[in-house]
């Protein structure tokens, strides 16, 4: 964990199992903070509250999260409950209210059982520890199968700096501005405004480039906290000689978490990566990559290990972007299936074998320009249907 | 069948089973024609050829269709093959080439086995008969389970007029400008240009309002042919006293076919109808209806008979349209689950019982204005995954 951060989790009774459902990240000092939030019109109550907190002085010291209940579409009571969580956490950890962020994930439209939540918050300070990252990660999961966390280390101004991150995902994943829940921490010294710019840019090419099912959640949020305790003297800005390294580390953590969410999509058996090159604009590359990764037919074909490239090109063609219909190349891993928009004879059993793997990379070269983008997703399986036919009941 | 039309079908060897795979609609006289075509950038070869035919004098006399092979992404050879089909049909039926339209549906990216197709076209004239509609319908199906056809009768200028239609759908259904394959015929007297305007308007509120899987095909097309043999003297225009009746009949046929395609979506167990009212604009109503009907999570919940309205409101919120987050009502059939954006206590077993039915109607009232729209789709099931995990192999 980056210096200055501790974390923890416990079971307060929101989940039916005994898995943790309440987690917290705590910083020794008020950390510089930045956040990105869902563009869904029905933004959940805790997002408003967190946004309000960060707005006061660009800082957060305590980040509280519960799973099992999204506190979304819960009206005035939901707003009061999110504020109640914030006040209780401020008291439990002895910090000002505006230094507390709160977020929730789970079922939409049900009121939080506040006695359980408040009881949990009271006990939370005793559960917080330097190696509490795994407990925190367990506490934020819903239908996720695996915990998603990573940490990188680099040198800034001669000092060792860490950037860590954790995330939850699984379903209702088609982020717009942010993803389900992502938490990043660093001990680098960097101002909130700069951190926000960095987060915006990285989010666009990582969290915003994944999809599980095309559904944008009401609760998407990525929060970054920077303790500044690494000891790098100057605050980081793009003019700093080590900025490029810091940005690369930050992007690595974002991309790692985004891919981890996609790989652990509901019912998924594999990670699919769609790499679009040769586009005229960055926007076109992104739109096409996201259209292909979001296609139910492409996803089903990957599940069935069927090298059905016709579905890939149909998705390329419906992305609403300029495409030269005579110049498209498509490869599945190293296997070329389409060159200059003409079918190539390929070894079907070899292609099927490749598609059976845990990682499928679909390369689409438009041969029109120099822009590129990558998107990540997963296959569409029986288990996705099973999980979502009875998520709530 | 409207006066002047005959139809037929046969098996020429494109499908592995013995089901018909080549069909034709023939008119006694050159019929006034209109068409709408997919906006997918990779428009299939036969669509170009049909467009070219209609462009010559706004007429078609023979409409040829094959299933089992889409003749899409097949390059110059595909274009030659589509022209070869047109030339062969012109010869077999003794009409000028530009009076022949051709279309194809099936696997993308494989060349048509032309000897089989040409052999079939040669035998086709003997299969054509006044009651050949069912044979034609069988010939256009791929993964469809049921044939889709209807006919209405109305009075125009004192004469009995018929409007008939047939369609195929099932997968890769998310039409943009047109749907998979739709064929409409009428014996009304109406000019091609007027027919085209009518078709555009009706398509926007029928064929363009359905989705099975969000994937827009390369081969979508709806073609209308009007024989003019009903005997109505004046050509129909919006100024004609019976225009409203004709338009309503035309719309009824379009909507009937659109709903039939949605109900018979790949793996579907039920038809889902999403009705959005109280929108500020028609565009907003349509966009929201299509977003809800396209949500994999909403579709899975309907399959599982789970009254998970949180997914419905999340989809409403991500449609990119203005929404007042305080005023939304949602009903499942007659069961109110959300009023003024606040959850209503409802009878869960009753709601589950309703959702188990073959038709689920989701009502969303935005309470912002007077515009409305309806979209149709189907549930997402194990069978959708099964069918699409191994469509081609």
UniProtKB/TrEMBL annotation, chains A, B:
Substrate binds at residues 142, 168, 179, 266, 388, 393. The record marks 105-106 as: Involved in the stabilization of negative charge on the oxyanion by the formation of the oxyanion hole. It catalyses: N(2)-acetyl-L-ornithine + L-glutamate = N-acetyl-L-glutamate + L-ornithine; L-glutamate + acetyl-CoA = N-acetyl-L-glutamate + CoA + H(+). The record marks 178-179 as: Cleavage. One of its GO terms (molecular function) is L-glutamate N-acetyltransferase activity, acting on acetyl-L-ornithine as donor. The keyword DNA repair does not apply. SUPFAM superfamilies: DmpA/ArgJ-like. Gene3D superfamilies: ArgJ beta chain, C-terminal domain, L-amino peptidase D-ALA esterase/amidase. The keyword Cell inner membrane does not apply. Pathway: Amino-acid biosynthesis; L-arginine biosynthesis; N(2)-acetyl-L-ornithine from L-glutamate: step 1/4; Amino-acid biosynthesis; L-arginine biosynthesis; L-ornithine and N-acetyl-L-glutamate from L-glutamate and N(2)-acetyl-L-ornithine (cyclic): step 1/1. InterPro entries: Arg_biosynth_ArgJ (IPR002813), ArgJ-like_dom_sf (IPR016117), ArgJ_beta_C (IPR042195). Catalyzes two activities which are involved in the cyclic version of arginine biosynthesis: the synthesis of N-acetylglutamate from glutamate and acetyl-CoA as the acetyl donor, and of ornithine by transacetylation between N(2)-acetylornithine and glutamate. Belongs to the ArgJ family. Heterotetramer of two alpha and two beta chains. PANTHER family: ARGININE BIOSYNTHESIS BIFUNCTIONAL PROTEIN ARGJ (PTHR23100), ARGININE BIOSYNTHESIS BIFUNCTIONAL PROTEIN ARGJ, MITOCHONDRIAL (PTHR23100:SF0). This is Arginine biosynthesis bifunctional protein ArgJ. It comes from Paenibacillus agricola. The lineage of its organism: Bacteria, Bacillati, Bacillota, Bacilli, Bacillales.
């Amino acid at each position: 964990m980056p210096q200055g951060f501790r974390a923890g989790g416990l079971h307060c009774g929101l989940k039916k199992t005994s898995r943790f459902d309440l987690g917290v990240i705590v910083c020794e000092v008020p950390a510089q903070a930045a956040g990105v939030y869902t563009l869904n019109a029905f933004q959940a109550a805790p997002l408003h509250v967190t946004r309000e907190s960060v707005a006061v002085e660009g800082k957060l010291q305590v980040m509280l999260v519960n799973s099992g209940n999204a506190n979304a579409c819960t009206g005035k009571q939901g707003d009061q409950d999110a504020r109640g969580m914030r006040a209780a956490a401020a008291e439990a950890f002895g910090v000002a209210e505006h230094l507390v962020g709160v977020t929730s994930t789970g079922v939409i439209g049900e009121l939080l059982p506040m006695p359980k939540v408040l009881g949990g918050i009271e006990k939370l300070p005793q559960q917080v520890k330097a190696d509490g990252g795994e407990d925190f990660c367990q506490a934020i999961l819903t239908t996720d199968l695996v915990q998603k966390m990573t940490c990188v280390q680099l040198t800034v101004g001669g000092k060792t700096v860490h950037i860590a991150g954790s995330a939850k995902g699984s379903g209702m994943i088609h982020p717009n501005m942010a993803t389900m829940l992502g938490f990043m921490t660093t001990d680098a010294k960097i101002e909130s405004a700069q951190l926000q710019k960095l987060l915006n840019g990285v989010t666009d090419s990582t969290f915003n480039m994944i999809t599980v099912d095309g559904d944008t959640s009401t609760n998407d949020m990525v929060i970054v906290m920077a303790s500044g305790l690494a000891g790098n003297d100057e605050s980081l800005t793009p003019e700093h000689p080590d900025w490029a390294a810091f940005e690369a580390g930050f992007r690595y953590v974002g991309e790692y978490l985004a891919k981890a969410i996609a790989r652990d999509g509901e019912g998924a058996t594999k990670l699919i990566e769609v790499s679009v090159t040769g586009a005229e604009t960055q926007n076109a590359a992104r739109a096409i990559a996201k259209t292909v990764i979001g296609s139910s037919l492409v996803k089903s074909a990957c599940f069935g290990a069927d090298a059905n490239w016709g579905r890939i090109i149909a998705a390329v063609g419906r992305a609403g972007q300029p495409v030269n219909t005579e110049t498209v190349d498509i490869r599945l891993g190293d296997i070329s299936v389409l060159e200059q928009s003409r079918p190539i004879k390929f070894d079907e059993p070899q292609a099927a074998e490749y598609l059976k793997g845990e990682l499928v990379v679909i390369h689409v070269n438009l041969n029109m320009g120099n822009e590129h983008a990558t998107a990540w997703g997963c296959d569409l399986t029986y288990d996705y249907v099973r999980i979502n036919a009875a998520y709530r009941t």
